From TrEMBL:
It holds the Pfam family MFS_MOT1. This is Transporter. Coiled coil: none annotated. It comes from Thermosynechococcus sichuanensis E542. GO terms for molecular function: molybdate ion transmembrane transporter activity. InterPro entries: MOT1/MOT2. The lineage of its organism: Bacteria, Bacillati, Cyanobacteriota, Cyanophyceae, Acaryochloridales. The chain crosses the membrane at residues 41-61, 81-101, 139-156, 163-181, 201-225, 246-264, 284-303, 310-330, 342-370. Keywords: Membrane, Transmembrane, Transmembrane helix.
Length: 379
């Protein structure tokens, strides 16, 4: 049983890199925008990955909360507001889970609305990539972006080639070469634990309004409902309940803010990414988390320097491909015209309206049930 729960082999190692395209650009973007301690962020992120792999025995990912990440990056919100937002969304999700409301919501929110939220998120990530990361490079930066684009486009992912890792290593190599070329920059190895962070009461309301409420609909749709469905599709012999996923989501975000970590969730795209590159057990995310743990514990003092010189065009092209993956999920709604229109509408609202994910979910769900003249069923 343990062998099927956690395996450590070349297949799991290959699969461990399946979520790099989502995680690293968002982590780097959040650290830079909110001026966070990178050692704390990477250490806590690594521990969360390891625990998730052990608990589920599946390549179940932990990812930065995407709606929060986009808002923090674009609006340059502070760390205390970010941590408050994570704590508030964790509290709301815990209440929804323990009361059974989360399970009911999973039955109520229709598939076109779920796809619309994913479309809106993909468009938001693409906007960040095209407006924030890609334009900030010189001619060499654009060349790196083009090379990264070709690697991600052409490498045969079905053979387990970690294209995302190769692109990241390309960026790391450029960053290291810049360090070696500048005598004032040097990498140091030093033991560093995460910094404890108090939760500031005055940040709870801004965190709720600016981050938690916009994030909650996407989390319900993508981190819970879509992830549970993806796990059921890929691992039919290992059923997961909405309640299980809701509990690990909640507890993670109630604990991590006190250790300087970014808010996290599960994600269907990450689960599919790990699986596509070969992962079949929790061993893949244990390996993946261990890499971040080592980076945070021993190289935390150098991560800040690497982040400053890391080519942003590399991050942009990875983020752009992740946006494409998210947006590609909507194609299953195309055969039904009404569903397709709701998906597009929800995506447009999520992208362009303040608290768009919340507004889009409410509007899309209302239109769906009005269009079918079906009363909501409570059980």
């Amino acid at each position: 049983m343990l062998r099927n729960w956690l395996r450590f082999n070349w297949q799991e190692l290959s699969g461990s890199f399946g979520d790099l395209g989502t995680d690293l650009p968002l982590l780097v973007g959040i650290i830079m925008a909110a001026q966070l301690d990178s050692a704390s962020v990477f250490t806590v992120f690594g521990i969360a990955q390891i625990l998730t792999g052990v608990i589920y025995g599946l390549p179940m990912p932990m990812q930065p909360l995407k709606a929060m990440a986009v808002i923090v990056i674009t609006q340059k919100l502070s760390g205390p507001i970010l941590w408050a937002g994570g704590w508030m969304v964790g509290t709301m999700m815990l209440v929804l889970t323990l009361t059974g409301i989360l399970t009911q919501l999973a039955r109520w929110i229709p598939q076109p609305v779920v796809r619309g939220c994913q479309l809106g998120l993909g468009l938001s990530l693409a906007s960040v990539a095209l407006k924030t990361y890609l334009p900030r490079g010189d001619a060499f930066g654009y060349l790196l972006g083009a090379i990264g684009f070709l690697i991600l486009l052409l490498l045969p992912k079905e053979r387990g080639v970690p294209a995302g890792l190769l692109v990241v290593l390309l960026g790391v190599g450029v960053a290291i070469s810049r360090v070696l070329a500048d005598p004032e920059l040097h990498l140091t190895v030093a033991w560093q634990l995460p910094h404890m962070q108090p939760l500031e009461l005055q940040t709870l309301l801004p965190g709720l309004l600016m981050l938690a409420l916009p994030q909650l609909p996407l989390s319900i749709a993508n981190a819970v409902i879509a992830t549970q469905q993806t796990a059921q599709d890929l691992f039919p012999d290992r059923p997961l309940s909405i309640r299980q996923i809701g509990l690990t989501y909640s507890l993670t975000n109630l604990i991590l803010p006190f250790f300087g970590g970014v808010p996290l969730c599960h994600g269907c795209s990450g689960l599919a990414g790990h699986y596509a590159l070969g992962a079949r057990t929790g061993g893949a995310v244990v390996i993946y988390g261990s890499l971040y743990l080592v980076l945070g514990l021993f190289f935390g003092s150098s991560v800040d320097k690497l982040l400053e010189i890391f080519p942003l065009s590399i991050l942009g092209v990875i983020l752009l491909f992740e946006a494409w993956v998210l947006m590609s999920f909507i194609k299953d709604q195309a055969p039904i015209a009404e569903n397709w229109m709701i998906t597009l509408l929800v995506g447009a609202i999520a992208l362009s309206v303040p608290q768009g994910f919340l507004v889009g979910t409410l509007v899309g769900t209302t239109l769906y049930y009005i269009g079918r003249k079906m009363p909501l069923q409570l059980s």
